[in-house]
Design a protein that fits this description.
Two copies of one chain form a homodimer.
Chain A lengths: L9 E5 L7 H16 L4 E5 L5 H12 L5 H25 L4 E4 L6 E3 L8 E4 L2 H8 L3 E5 L2 E4 L4 E3 L4 H13 L2 E6 L20 E3 H9 L7 H10 L3 E5 L7 E4 L12 E5 L2 E10 L4 H11 L7 E3 L6 E9 L3 H14 L4 E5 L2 E7 L9 H11 L6 E5 L2 E7 L3 H11 L6
Parallel strand pairs in A: 1-2, 1-9, 2-6, 3-6, 4-7, 9-11, 10-12
Antiparallel strand pairs in A: 4-5, 7-8, 11-12, 13-18, 14-16, 14-17, 15-16, 18-20, 19-20
Helix pairs in contact in A: 1-3, 2-3, 5-7, 6-7, 8-9, 10-11
């Protein structure tokens, strides 16, 4: 344990569902108080309570269908500020000296990109002073201040990023508390024998986060990786070691696959019978990139009579805009038929061990075929294989992959 | 009208009930937009919507019965920040460039007294820059920042003070919008023929505010007086000139009395048969002052057999604490009986014209006597006469005074 003065700070982050009711706020305050009494220098980072953020957005959109992003941030930042004040007050009711800080009071400086700002610096002097005088510091997550003095927010899940960035700046470790007790080989609600992973590499965790695993925000994992911050994902409501996210040693990677994921929030856009001329794909995907729409699985069919079919997937939320943009682009290059298909889902395998082990993809395809599941499209990265399937077959597909790679318990 | 660039800014303040629903926010945004389109440089100061402040306090007290004042301010300040962002967004939906600012972003510096901070300086550069570039600036009322960098609040009604202080700092005028269309000779709900006053002096307005007239916060009127800011009280929901609060010329004060007020939120504490020794009153009222309890109407009865009765009034909210303090003080000086009486109310006449016209008090007492109303106690200042009466007789008392001094219409 060492001298108290030698202890490095610990940053504990609590998500919105962990703070959704007064009882839960008391529970969180109790957990923080316990760590403080054990002698840790504790910084708590909190999200907005429960559905606060969605409720605020609803109130805003009733007044302004397309509000300025600056005002969205000004409004949303209040949710975390309220949480921070409530948690600090609950701590003081437990006899713990606590002080809440907004993002700017905590010294979090960001670029001016409202709603998805990037942290470009942290001035942790105020937090350090408060910790040195024995206070628990409760920081409003998800927010910072631009150089122009405007309140910014860090995007959905941004409180994770606040916590990791503060841990990096303070030279401490980071624990992310939510209502699940760690990272699993697959979603246990779909795959009953899914196992909690005691540890996972940053690279794999980033892929899983991108694939819809909601335990940790992808950008927070990226930041932790870049700044060498050890992150633990743990449960607010249960004891247990959780999952440690860290640099994985190659030797630890016995299994080629670490986890499997299912993402239902995708849609496919089909561009059928478009003229097969050079530069067509560039034109189409250039227009989508300009609209900041991320395109995932892309398939272009072999040309037939000078025409080809191009299909790609986008996030559900972007599907309507993507269809419109594709339609305009296709019109501009000689016509074709554009349609949208929401009845798809993506099942994926993630594992840094894939790198050194060939044959993972073919085993995955065999597993899906063995379960009678048709693969619509495939995309792969160095540590990931994703297959697009019909949405109603996706859960069976996830279970088949999970089983084929022996990810389950026992 | 003059050159646009010569126009001094106008600060429009909208209270919580003027912003309680989306429709009302739209109405307020429309009013602001109209002034902007007329060429005015507009700063809008907004309160928290509807009952937001009370709701936040309720949530807080469920977690911490006696929360640190610093955290109360951190929590409450979010209500005004939300209002400001929503109004700015509603303005942009009307095609008006608007930017919301928190208290600290607006440059409002206060002392560190949480929950009742005093403004000690304003740095209006950011507002000036925004106005110069054609923006409407929407400022979150009721809040500022202490030198230590903590969020502070200015006490109930503090948004009025924000508006007046900004007007003083910007060299502009101030309009306070609420759901009444100005200052009346008496509360029109009680006195049907009460008249709206086209103008009232700062001194009289301060007395009326202290007597429970809720149109303007007393400290805001004091600040306006000290800094020579012209204030208009107007209605959000109706057109009309409202009431102008300003330096009154002696010659304008034709009537000795300007208005009458009724304050039900008082209680009386009776200390009966206490030893009549020198210094007793000092000891009793010293203890109350130490507890920051304001004492109003004080009556000490003639001594009888070495004992005397002392009675005084306090605000309703302070009654229980005042009784306890009085009890302890009386015990310490030789005993007596202490009790509390909530069944009282205060009817008052206010008028700077009283100064030069004797006989106002006796006319007031005659009016009450003529209505069969018993006066329990009396207190006077240079421009005010207050009579304590039984609560059930208070409305009749107000009407009698209003009539006796010819304050009504026609």
């Amino acid at each position: 344990m060492g001298e108290e003065s030698l202890r490095s700070p610990v940053v504990l982050k609590f998500g919105g569902s962990s703070l959704a009711t007064p009882d839960r706020v008391r529970l969180v305050a109790g957990r923080i108080a316990e760590r403080h009494r054990q002698g840790d220098a504790v910084v708590a980072v909190v999200s907005a309570q429960g559905d606060t953020t969605d409720e605020l957005l609803e109130r805003l959109h009733e007044l302004a269908p397309d509000p300025p992003a600056r005002e969205v941030d000004m409004l949303l930042a209040t949710g975390e500020q309220q949480s921070a004040a409530l948690v600090a007050a609950a701590l003081s009711a437990l006899g713990v000296q606590a002080v809440s800080l907004t993002g700017w009071q905590a010294g979090i400086a960001t670029d001016p990109s409202h709603r998805r700002a990037r942290i470009h610096g942290i001035a942790p002097q105020r937090i350090r002073r408060l910790l040195a005088s024995g206070h628990v510091v409760v920081v409003a997550g998800f927010q910072g201040l631009s150089d122009a003095g405007d309140v910014t927010t860090l995007g959905r899940g941004g409180s994770d990023l606040t916590a990791v960035a503060l841990a990096a700046s303070l030279g401490g470790t980071c624990e992310i508390y939510s209502d699940v007790d760690g990272v699993y080989t697959a979603d246990p609600r779909i795959v009953p024998d899914a196992r909690r992973l005691p540890a996972i590499g940053y690279d794999e965790m980033m892929e899983l986060a991108a694939l819809g695993a909601q335990v940790l925000q992808g950008r927070a994992v990226e930041y932790a990786w870049q700044h060498d911050v050890e992150v633990h994902a743990r449960s607010t409501f249960a004891e247990g070691p959780g999952t440690s996210v860290r640099h994985a040693q190659a030797t630890e990677r016995v299994q080629p696959v670490t986890g499997a994921a299912l993402d239902r929030s995708v849609a496919r856009v089909l561009c059928e019978r478009v003229p097969d001329r050079p530069g067509i794909a560039a034109q189409l995907f250039g227009a989508l990139a300009k609209a900041a729409i991320n395109v995932d699985v892309i398939v272009q069919s072999p040309s037939h009579e000078g025409r080809t079919d191009i299909a790609f997937t986008v996030a559900d939320d972007d599907a309507v805009a993507a269809e419109e943009i594709a339609h305009a682009a296709v019109e501009g290059i000689g016509g074709g038929h554009v349609s949208r298909d929401a009845d798809v889902a993506k099942v994926s395998l993630v594992g840094a061990g894939m790198l050194s082990r060939p044959g993972v993809a073919s085993r995955a395809f065999q597993a899906l075929a063995g379960a009678g599941i048709n693969i619509i499209a495939i995309t792969t990265s160095e540590i990931k294989i994703s297959c697009l399937v019909r949405r109603e077959e996706a859960e069976a597909g996830l279970r088949a992959l999970h089983k084929a790679f022996g990810l389950g318990g026992d």
